[in-house]
Amino acid sequence: DFSKVCVIDTENHSASLYSHMGEFNVINLTAPYHPEKYIQAMDLCAKSGMEVIVIDNDSHAWSGKAGCLELNEKEAAKMKVPNSFTAWANVTPIYQGYIDAIINSPCHIICTLRSKTEYVMSERNGKQVPQKTGTAPMIRDGFDFEMSVAFDLDQQHKAFCTKDRTRLFQDRE
Predict the structure, then answer these.
(1) I want to staple 75 with a disulfide (CB 3.0 to 4.6 A). Which of 16, 40, 51, 87 is the partner?
(2) Is the CB of residue 120 less than 8 Å from the CB of residue 131?
(3) Interatomic CA distance for residues 81 and 83, integer angstroms
(4) Helix (H, G, I), strand (E, B) or coil at 50
(5) How many helical (H) and strand (E) elements, i.e. helices and strands, does the chain have?
(6) In the chain, how long is the greatest CA-to-CA distance?
(7) DSSP state of 29
(8) Residue 147 has pLDDT above 90, yes or no
(9) 35-47 and 84-104 are packed helices; what angle lies between their axes, rounded to 10 degrees?
(10) Angle at 137 between CA 64 and CA 157, to 5 degrees
């Protein structure tokens, strides 16, 4: 029932590209991407009776304008002796509140993340050509630990299950 699905779209209204799938709900988030905006959107979804929330994408809450990395930089800049490590003492509770909102939501939440891109040389038709590879999600380390199921997608759009508490996807091709 797509009427019980909401996409929290931070990708410049790209959820409309999937409108052929059904009539789902959309909340368009724009910069600044402070984690509190995500929390408010998730709360609105829950209060509106949504069953599934797709957050496309979560990376902005980490590395986007007013995301956690920028919040950390601002906290460090306020210090007499700037120290980005110490500044995390003020930003980590914000990030943890965001994670807690995902984990404790009464809705099923699907999070998408951007990945850092790297190029490797591979052989194609007897020639060495650069091939783009996703190397790591753009989010704080350990984000996948909080999720029930995690998938990596390759450049050919194949999904590889990297974590599965449900046992629905483990050991499947």
Answers:
(1) 87
(2) yes
(3) 6
(4) coil
(5) 5, 8
(6) 58
(7) -
(8) no
(9) 10
(10) 115
